[in-house]
Each structure stands twice: as C-alpha cells, then as structure tokens.
UniProtKB/TrEMBL annotation:
It catalyses: 2'-deoxyribonucleotide-(2'-deoxyribose 5'-phosphate)-2'-deoxyribonucleotide-DNA = a 3'-end 2'-deoxyribonucleotide-(2,3-dehydro-2,3-deoxyribose 5'-phosphate)-DNA + a 5'-end 5'-phospho-2'-deoxyribonucleoside-DNA + H(+). SUPFAM superfamilies: Glucocorticoid receptor-like (DNA-binding domain), N-terminal domain of MutM-like DNA repair proteins, S13-like H2TH domain. GO terms for biological process: base-excision repair. Pfam families: H2TH, zf-FPG_IleRS. This is DNA-(apurinic or apyrimidinic site) lyase. It is an enzyme of class 4 (lyase). NCBIfam families: PRK10445.1 (NF007763).
Length: 209
C-alpha cells in the first residue's frame, strides 16, 4: 500500500501474510499481542498497522526506483484496467504457461489479488487451479478475464455492506473460501481444502474442471 503525504513523502507498506490494518477512535489503544508498526491519526480516528514486515518512507525519487514497485503488475482496482488488458496479460509469453494456482498469487501478474480472491475467481469460472491460460479456449479466457476484475472490485466495494434482500445479507460473500466440507451452491458437491503454492486452497472437485 502507498500512502501519500502532502510534504511529498510516501509511506510504503507491505502486509505480507501477517500485517493488518485497524481503524479505531482517535484516543483508543486496542489490547493486542500484535506489534504496532504505524499509527496515523486525525482528530477523530486513527488507523493502525500491526505486524507488517516491510515499511519504508520514500521520497519521490525513491518511489520511482523501488524494486518491488518496479515489478508489480497493474492494480485490479484501477478502473482504467479492462478485461481485454487482463486477457492480453494472461496470453503473454511471461504468464501464458503458468498454472493459475501460483500465477494468481504473483503480484507481478496483477496487483491486489490474494488467496481468497484466487479461490473465488476460479470457482466463479468453474476452473481447477492447475490450468494455464495457454490451455483455455476463448470462452473460458473471456470469462476468466472478466472475473479477475469483477470479483476483486465487488469485494472491495461491498464487503461489509448488507442488503436484507440478498442471501445471507452481505453483497459479497465467500462461495468456497473457508467452506471445506460444505455443499457447493452451484452443483451440490462437497467443497474440498488442499494446499497449493503453500497456501490453503478451497474448491469444488465436482464442478471445477
């Protein structure tokens, strides 16, 4: 995450697996065993970053040459990024022969994806994680290219927003993530949990082919 300040410095923070942000009241000091790394505060609220392992304050010149930012791909929340752009990246020589299980965790492909999005995107398009873009027909490529943008954007915009007319209330909810042993709502099969790319992966073996 990049947090820009008015004096031309930028706070670079990378949560890795364990970092977490919390929003609290300005005078609140949460009781936690986590290590506080950053506190940013206004008159009313404060945001706290715990346990992140990679934090730097960068000048404009350092921002342009930061090694991680040099290799990171386009952000899925950037509304200028289109499904056609994503399809082109999927089919590029750099990414076309990589299994989705690892590719969707690589920020060089698309920035902003993570494990739960990897799981939900592949369920949405009915694909197993071992596939590669080079193996897909155009129909699957189109569906996947749209899902790689639509699901992260829906999650960002609506998680925590409740609609009483929507099943379970939440506008965004997990279809397979953390639902091992439960029925798949699409086919009735049982959702399974395995490890892929050193991360837990949830899927429906019956309808994800």
């Amino acid at each position: 995450m990049l947090t820009h300040f008015s004096h031309n410095l930028t706070l670079y923070s990378h949560n890795q697996l364990y970092g977490v942000w919390r929003v609290v009241e300005a005078d609140e000091q949460p009781q936690t065993t986590r290590v506080l790394r950053v506190r940013l505060q206004t008159a009313d609220k404060a945001i706290l970053l715990y346990s992140a392992s990679d934090i730097e304050m960068l000048t404009p010149e350092q921002l342009l040459t930061h090694p991680f930012l040099q290799r990171v791909g386009p952000d899925v929340l950037d509304m200028r990024l289109t499904a056609s752009d994503v399809k082109a990246r999927l089919l590029s020589p750099k990414f076309r022969n990589r299994q989705f299980s690892g590719l969707f965790l690589d920020q060089a492909f698309l920035a902003g994806l993570g494990n739960y999005l990897r799981v939900e995107i592949l369920w949405e398009v009915g694909l197993a994680a071992q596939h590669k873009a080079s193996q897909l027909n155009d129909e699957h490529l189109e569906a996947l290219s749209h899902a790689l943008l639509d699901i992260p954007r829906l999650s960002y915009n609506t998680r925590g927003v409740v609609d009483e007319n929507t099943h379970h209330g939440a506008l965004f909810r997990f279809k397979v993530f953390h639902r091992a042993g439960k029925k798949c709502e699409r086919c009735g099969g049982i959702i399974d949990r395995i490890m892929l790319s050193s991360r837990p992966f949830y899927w429906c073996p019956h309808c994800q082919q």
